Every structure is written in C-alpha cells, then in structure tokens.
Here is the input.
Amino acid sequence: MTEQPTIDASRPGLLRWQLSLTWSLAEHHLAGCTQEFLLWEPVPGCASVRLDGTGRWWPDWNDEDPDALPGVSAGWISWHLGWWWSETLDHVAGREPVPRAEVSWPGSAEAAAEWLRALHGRWSDHLASLADDDLDRPFAYPWPQPRPFAIAAAWVNSELMKNVSEIGQLRHTWLALGRPGPEVETARSVGGAGALRPDRVRGEHP
Here is the structure.
C-alpha cells in the first residue's frame, strides 16, 4: 500500500497549502502571458497600463470611483496584484509602503512575471516562518482596525486567487478570439458613449 503524504492541517499549514495551490495556477497562466496579451483591451475604455514619455508604464486609475471602469486588461491586473502584494509585504515588514501613484508596471511580460514571482517568494517565506501564535497578533492591513494576522493572510491568498483567475479568464477569452492585437474591431461595439476613456481615468504620475 502506498503511504499517504503527511498533510499539515494546522492554521499555518493550511495557509501554506492554500498559497501553493493558488500559485500553481498562477504559474500556469504566467507561462502563457505575452506582451500582446497583457496589453490587449477586451472592451473600449478599459483600464490598462500605458507607456509615458520617459519609458515608464503607468496604470489607468479613477480616484473618484475605482470600480467605475468598464473592464481591465491582464496587464492592469498584473500591476494591481503587484501593487497590493508589495504594499502588504511592506506592512508585514513594518516599512512605509510606496504610494500607489508611484508604483509603475515593470514594462514587459517577462519583467511582470519576475516581479510577481519575487513577491510570491517573499510571501511564501513569511508564511513558512509563522508559528500558530503568530496568526493571532493584531494586524491593521488591509483594514484600518486591527484584526488577527490569520485573517489578513487568508485575504492575501484569496485575493491572489481572484486576480490569477481574472488573468486566466482573460487569457482563455483572448485565445478563443484568435489572439487579437490591442485593437479589436469586434470589441468596439461593446460599451458606448458613456464608457470611460483611458485619458479620463489615468492618474497623475511623477
């Protein structure tokens, strides 16, 4: 009889297992991400990342209503994931996070994947260092009122799964449409005059 592997069902063990499961899906999709796919805009006026005159890439952002965007590109999602994960890890380390408006996108599919893999490594190492008691200490991110760190850690893993799934769904759609470029004629009819344009939602950057 084949011996079954030992499964760590402690609270830290479950968080590490959850991260491992989610990251295996992330690697599956990151391996298939190309620059063309990440910059593809599935609907007119959706949020994406834009190259400025200095060679840096910045995300579209609506300070008044971030949820008002009609859609997002996979490149924007990869930036968003890198931003909030970096901010979380800064809070974990007791550092002042870089302001959102100063967090640029790395600029290529390869660099974005390296950025996310580095963040995964840092988060994985932190979870590996936790004892059960560490999960009970107060932690005031992403909520203003402190909650047990276990809640924040579960949120990180869940938010990661959400963002990875969003990238995966967009990638499946992109492949089904025949790998269209950034401008898609069939997508132009989606939305209308009220759709937010990138020049209306792009924030100011240094």
